[in-house]
């Protein structure tokens, strides 16, 4: 997949402190099911915001309301400064990959994209150039002339991504973009998101791949049964969750026993034994371990990971 510079440029540059999207009091019910419950969310311009949440937590419904594909039961949506009846005016600047009416099964991927290109108000003249460039960019050039009907799930995802990136956008919304993609496809999506971020394009993506979100996102929002549990700058959230130390040792069980005997609530963690902030600082921890005859290979400050934060947030709330 090669980068096509012309398709990474944002159509308009937003002031640094502007919001690409803003929702207030957003709610959606389907009969007795509350899919999204009174959500307030800001998506800063230039952010890459990862929307996380267990199955059925309301991510897709929120995204569909943001894009005007589903009408909210209550609340307001502002997209690139447009709201209410003006919302459609923002849509040419918004690229989206969402589940929905698919592509024409009997046309090739390329012909499907040519139809999309014909409907783009900002494209005219020879549509084959932007279509071929974006097919290359999403790694679909080789399969471009095959019928959509025969595409694998991953190829369909790549074509959806291509449609979202067909023209320069200010906001790109991707609902589970790596769904069905192989590891190479996942890396391609990561690269496309990084290109968009470098070009100043705001990206909102939903995903279950926490490591991917941690790698590419600047911000996160965590939903649980329709409620927004937390939203904000990813690094700040992780820093606030960090603390304590991790001890690398071959004697994990003995280390846990020794630390607990010394009053520190130690537990098994990746890389050894984690000791949360508490009565013992690093020197006390090392002294307790050495005193108990436990080998200490390394002691370092514990850095929080999104997976840990997500698990704790969603399990605490469940
Ligand atoms: N059209 C619909 N009719 C009835 N219920 C719906 C509809 N769309 C969504 N729901 C319900 O709303 C809730 C939120 O669903 P949604 O698809 O937004 O969650 P999600 O977080 O995107 O889930 P997943 O991670 O599984 O894709 C679920 O309980 C779902 O069953």
UniProtKB/TrEMBL annotation:
Belongs to the ABC transporter superfamily. GO terms for molecular function: ATP binding; ATP hydrolysis activity. SUPFAM superfamilies: P-loop containing nucleoside triphosphate hydrolases. Keywords: ATP-binding, Nucleotide-binding, Transport. It comes from Actinomycetospora cinnamomea. Residues 21-250 form the ABC transporter domain. Gene3D superfamilies: P-loop containing nucleotide triphosphate hydrolases. InterPro entries: AAA+_ATPase (IPR003593), ABC_transporter-like_ATP-bd (IPR003439), ABC_transporter-like_CS (IPR017871), P-loop_NTPase (IPR027417). This is ABC-2 type transport system ATP-binding protein. PROSITE patterns: ABC_TRANSPORTER_1, ABC_TRANSPORTER_2. It comes from the Bacteria. PANTHER family: ABC TRANSPORTER, ATP-BINDING PROTEIN. The lineage of its organism: Bacteria, Bacillati, Actinomycetota, Actinomycetes, Pseudonocardiales.
């Amino acid at each position: 997949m090669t980068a096509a510079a012309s398709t990474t440029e944002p159509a308009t540059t937003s002031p640094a402190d502007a919001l690409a999207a803003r929702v207030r009091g957003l709610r959606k019910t389907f009969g007795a099911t509350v899919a999204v419950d009174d959500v307030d969310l800001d998506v800063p311009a230039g952010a890459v915001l990862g929307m996380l949440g267990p199955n059925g937590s309301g991510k897709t419904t929120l995204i569909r309301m943001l894009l005007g594909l589903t009408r909210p039961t209550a609340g307001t949506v502002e997209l690139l400064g447009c709201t209410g009846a003006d919302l459609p005016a923002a849509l040419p600047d918004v690229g989206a990959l969402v589940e929905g009416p698919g592509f024409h099964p009997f046309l090739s991927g390329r012909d499907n994209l040519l139809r999309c290109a014909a409907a783009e108000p900002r494209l005219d003249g020879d549509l084959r150039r932007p279509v071929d460039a974006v097919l290359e960019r999403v790694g679909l050039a080789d399969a471009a002339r095959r019928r959509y009907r025969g595409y694998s799930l991953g190829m369909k995802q790549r074509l959806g991504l291509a449609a979202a990136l067909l023209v320069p956008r200010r906001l790109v919304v991707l609902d589970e973009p790596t769904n069905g993609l192989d590891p190479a496809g996942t890396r391609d999506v990561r690269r496309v998101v990084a290109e968009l971020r470098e070009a100043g394009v705001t990206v909102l993506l939903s995903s279950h791949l926490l490591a991917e979100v941690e790698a590419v996102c600047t911000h996160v929002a965590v939903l649980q049964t329709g409620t927004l549990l937390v939203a904000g700058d990813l690094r700040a959230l992780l820093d606030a969750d960090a603390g304590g130390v991790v001890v690398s040792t071959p004697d994990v069980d003995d280390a846990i026993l020794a630390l607990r005997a010394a009053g520190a609530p130690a537990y098994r963690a990746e890389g050894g034994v984690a000791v949360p902030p508490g009565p013992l600082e690093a020197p006390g921890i090392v002294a307790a371990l050495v005193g108990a005859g436990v080998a200490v290979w390394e002691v370092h400050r514990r850095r929080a990971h999104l997976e840990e934060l997500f698990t704790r947030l969603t399990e605490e709330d469940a």
